[in-house]
Every structure is written in structure tokens, then in C-alpha cells.
Amino acid sequence: MLSIHKLTKAFGPNVAVDQADIEIANPAMVGIIGRSGAGKSTLLRMMNRLSDATSGKIVYEGCDITELRGKDKRHWQSECAMIFQQFNLVPRMDVVSNVLHGTLNQRSTVSTVFNLFPKADIHRAIDILERLGIAEHGPKRAEALSGGQQQRVAIARALMQDPKIILADEPIASLDPMNAQVVMQSLRRIHEEDGRMVIANLHTLDTARRYCDRVIGMRDGRIVFDGTPEQLTTGAARDIYGADDSFSEAATSTEIQALDRIPA
Ligand SMILES: Nc1ncnc2c1ncn2[C@@H]1O[C@H](COP(=O)(O)OP(=O)(O)OP(=O)(O)O)[C@@H](O)[C@H]1O
Ligand SMILES: [Mg+2]
């Protein structure tokens, strides 16, 4: 169980996240939506402790995450892997080595400096790549892969940490609809098959509705919606996005559903 209590982050006078309260029972796939600047990334970064909260608490299985320091904080960061819009791979390094870097915080400095990876880790990296359907690209440089393939490498790297939680900040924002679909399906499968919690910031309504069990809507740093995809009506969405009657769902659509209807 992940409990977030009155979590707040202020940048000077600007309150990016304002007293957020969220309870997520394991396992869940949760989508966070809201317009640009609503506080979605800031919320995710606080969960991972990339950014410290101004006030409030994050409690995971009885442990106060906001209080962790040093080794304990690093351990938490390996328990909740982060995936970013821009993949954050090492472009000139091969795919398998990129994935192996997911184990970095579990290894000694010496083995890191000399790029020595245990055989078992290499096998595991290849297994994970296979699971994500990209093992054949293992020897290639990361930069030689398509965006969708690179994002799957980033997911593989996250899985190397064997995380309990995967935090994804706009994982498909730079991808075309077809690649976006493959990446979202990968995240969904990881959630369903491994029972990992997945929390993804998403900029499109249809993606959140389609892949998530629960959707959280943020507006001006506040949580203004928390419900099932069915409860996320056009009216509720208009409220989250702060739009008037001219609000159109199409403006927040990746047209993934339309793509689904194209026969293979
Ligand atoms: N490091 C920072 N320093 C100052 N202000 C920041 C910082 N990071 C975020 N903010 C501000 O906090 C608010 C929330 O930003 P955040 O990046 O969390 O929004 P977001 O919902 O992720 O937006 P987007 O959809 O554009 O990614 C914004 O007003 C932003 O300008
Ligand atoms: Mg963001």
C-alpha cells in the first residue's frame, strides 16, 4: 500500500503540488492526467525522491519514504524505477549494456568502473529484452533503435532493478500511435503478470482510460479527480483540464483506439 498524505511541493511562491492525498493498494495501474504545469511530474519525482517534498508524507508499507536518507533512500529509488519521456539511455552504448545499467546501484564501484557484469545479470538482461520483444536488438547501439524500441529498452533497464513500483513520466509522449500502443501494452503486461504497481503520467485521456484501472486528475497542483475510467466522463475531463464548453476530447487523444480498428 502506498499512501500519500498532504504532499506539497512549493517552488518559491509557486505551489506545484498542493496537499495531495492518494492511497494506492497493490497492485494497481494508475494514470495521472492534467494539463501542462498541473504538477504531474513533480508528484512523481517526489515519490521517487528525486525531489524533496516541502511538506507532507509518503508512506509505503508502513515506511515513511520522505524521511529516508543515504543508503535507505537509494534502496527506495531502486524499488521504484522511473521511466522518462526521453528514455534517458546512453545512446552510443549497446542495448544490453544499457539494460545492465539498471543494476548499477546494486554493484561495487570497481565492477562499475571496469564495466564488469556478472554472467547471471547478462542472462537476465537478455531474458527481459526477450520478454519485451526486442532481444534481437541487444548488440545494437541504443541510438540505432526506434523511439518505441528505445522506450522498451528503458523499461527493461527498470525491470533489471526488480522494482515494486514503476513510475513513468509521459512514457509515450514522444512516440507515434503505433509505438505508443506497444509501450503501453508492455507496461500493462508487467503490471498484470508481475503484480507491479505502475503509475504513469499521461497526456491523453484515451490512453489513461484504456490502460489504467484508476485515473487521477490534477489541476493547479491539486487532485481534482480520482476514479475509474468509467467515471472519467467528458464532463469530468473538462473539469480536470479546466476547459470551457469548447473542450474537445480529440485534442487530448493519441487516436490509439482508431488505430486498433485497422485490420492487421
Ligand atoms: N525545478 C523547478 N523549479 C521551479 N519551478 C518548477 C520546477 N519544476 C516544476 N516547476 C513548476 O511546477 C509546476 C508543475 O510542474 P510539473 O512539471 O510538475 O507539471 P506537469 O504537470 O508535469 O506538466 P507537463 O505536462 O508540462 O509535463 C509548474 O508551474 C512548473 O513551472
Ligand atoms: Mg511533466
TrEMBL record:
Gene3D superfamilies: P-loop containing nucleotide triphosphate hydrolases (3.40.50.300). Residues 2-245 form the ABC transporter domain. It comes from the Bacteria. It comes from Shimia abyssi. This is Phosphonate transport system ATP-binding protein. CDD domains: ABC_PhnC_transporter. GO terms for cellular component: membrane. Keywords: ATP-binding, Cell inner membrane, Cell membrane, Membrane, Nucleotide-binding, Translocase, Transport. PROSITE patterns: ABC_TRANSPORTER_1 (PS00211), ABC_TRANSPORTER_2 (PS50893). One of its GO terms (molecular function) is ABC-type phosphonate transporter activity.
